[in-house]
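Below is how a single chain appears once it has passed through the pipeline. First comes the sequence as given, then the structure the pipeline wrote out for it. We keep one example in the README because the format questions we get most often are answered faster by looking than by reading.
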Amino acid sequence: MNSSPSPNHDIHFSLDFLTDLKEEYKFTEGEIEVIKCFSGAVLENNDTPENKEISNHLLITDSTVSTRLTGVYKKFNISNSGPVKKTILRDTLRDRYQSWSKQKSQPGTNKNYQNNQQPNDLQAEDNIFKPIQERCKQTINKQHSTIRLFNKDTIKVEHLYVDVLLLNKPSQTKEVLPSERGKYINIVDGISKQSNPDERCSGFDVAKKYNKLLISGKPGSGKTTFLKHLAQCWSNGIFQSDSIAVVIEFRNIQGEEWSLIHAIEKELELEGNWNKIQELKAQKKKIKDELSKSVSEYSNDKKNLKNEQSLKKLQELEHELKSLPLESLLQQGKLLLLMDGLDEVPTDKLRRSVQRQISDLAQEYENNHFILTCRIQIDLETVLTSDFTWVQVADFNTEQVEHFVKNWFTMQTDDKAEQKWQIFNKIFFQDKALNELAFTPVLLNLICLILENSSSLDNKLALESKDINHIYRRGIYLLLTELNEVKNIIGWERGTEKYRQLSNKEKELLLIHLAAHKFVNPDNFITFEEDEIINQIIDFFKKDKKIQLTNNEAKGVLKAMEAQHGLLIERAKQWWTFSHLTLQEYFTIEWLTTLTSKELAEKVANNVWQNAVQRLVKSQKPADRFVRLIKQAIDNSIKVDENDMDELEDNTNLQKYLTWVFKQSQVIQEAIQADYKPIAIRAFYFTLPMFNLTHAIEFSISCDLSRNFNCDFDFEKEFDGLIDINKSFDRARKRIKDCRKGLKRFQSFACFLDPELGNRLAQITELLPNLSVKDPDLQRWVRSSDIQQLKNEVDQVINQHLNICPNCQFSDEQKQKLQRYYDANKFLLDLINIQGTVSDAFRIEIENSLLLPWEELQNRS
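Resulting structure:
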């Protein structure tokens, strides 16, 4: 053997031979180019060319040569190892070329030699193809033309279908630096963006473009509906009309021995074909192995005789193989395999088996059309190695929402779809939280189902808060449990054993734990780094389940939560968020409502927590729903609950106190006939007995005028530590004005409560200096005995009127609880007074319900 053989580039196989060879074995252009380099070795009995020589001749890299050769070996079923593979390839090409030349020299040879088919074979094949195609159309129209709603009704796919948009690059594959995550998560607006709009492509166009397509998406994103739509398009001759479509629903798999190819056989009604195919292929492999063996063991004469007999037998086997309809369909690339829900294969073991079967089938019969769906973050490595193009279903945009809603109401009422959409649009898009839910198809489906018989759409009414909360609770229950129950996935083993052992309530508690942790993060309350969220999962299991998870187990829990429910999703590689910021809010408030009044007060007093709330409501303007839930949490903190014996006595006394405040404010409101908001009077009477006059005035005026007042009578501190004396005078004058206005404002109804208190308020007002006094005089007054007299008067009023309520004998613990309740309501008041935080109508609603006893709140709900 020459040490440096060189392929003879002047001697080539005939173009017709290469064309026929390419069609028979489905070689790529690159693979044919490599085969050409073996022409000299075959036709002049030279040694095989080295990879380096091939790469130099074709001007490609050595690795590209190796890749192309691997493809050639695979298609010729050359499975040997080492240098002998090239020798076998050379001899195989020589045998194929000699047989081809002999056939071409015979008169009347049909051009379709490579398939060993005569015209009558083609006609026979067509006679088989058409009946199978018709049977599959009937199956698809019968079994896959409808979708099931959550009320158990079924509807035609095409009645509700909306064109699906796909993202070219799934979010989980994107490597994103921390400084660039804003491209994928808009933290300012609190709205998550899957990708840039220009990366969205028509799902139908993508399905036509790629013959191996993997479509991932979160639960309820529309994957199954899209696959059913493609099946209907095929049945109607719109999509891949020259193929035969087979729909495989992986959730229906039963038994660990399930076989993909046998499932395809059954759908095609060709049972038994595959066993015969495997038998014939085994015989072919045995003959090829013998051919390989003959290269070294036989003399040239014996080798040629043996090869001729073997090649004849191979041709016979090949002809028999192609006479089997299933093999013929697969070899010609005639199957359109629509495979739904890889993640829904019941067990982990079987799922891995199914993935291998898909991969093997796609590699062996690569010219067929494979479309596979699965939920985000299933273990896809095996499938992806089979050259599948991986895309992701995008959330709905506004146009898709409109199309879906119109389709829904057209299906229900026929003639009022446009009118219903306009009302739906007005109701839903005025609430940012509901608006966000509408962009997930499964939740939009649920919303339409809930509102189908609602008077809101008939009477153009806005949804009440309890209705909005109901939609959220239903949506979360749907994603946590019902979505999988409707699909009837029996014995589904997704995620770690530890996660599967959690009840639905415990899964919700885990989500609440994650939301609460993230909510008080001072730097970023939306995105989780993967390590961060894994640590929180470990913390939850340790505290709530007394179970110690490893990092890998916790990561398995995270992946399971994404795959099963879609409530947490990976926005970019190792960057996670809740799928909807509004759901994160919901879980945060669920956590808030579980806090004791003491814990709630601690949160309210915590600047980090308050800043987090303010930051979130500012990003969600108007944040009516979120603020309403905070209000509910505050009210619940002192609700009388007979099941809670620890809090029963305290909360009973506090409710009695609130009842007295409410009734007293009603009496005052009717008696004085002044233009005061009821909450202002309640705030004064609630605060005065328990705290002091200053607090009562400040809180009451804040409630009445929606702005803060500073009624502290310690004017002297305005001159401490300030370099700019003019600022000191300005602040002192403002506080004098606030104090005068506050004292006069409440003198009227204070007189009704206690005439002496009214007179004392008037006297204190007279002690305040005139605002027109010059700066030196004002400074002397602040430092004079006059200011001390004012302070003494204020202290006396406080001491004499602390027990204004006849039934307000509270223990120290009850006083602390009232203090916490006061702080929480004061914070809530500050919150709704932030410009644009809540709608005007909702601000009035909150003001009207502040400091009311539980019984009255229930009467008004």
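DSSP finds 40 helices and 14 strands in the chain.

See the next section for the split statistics.
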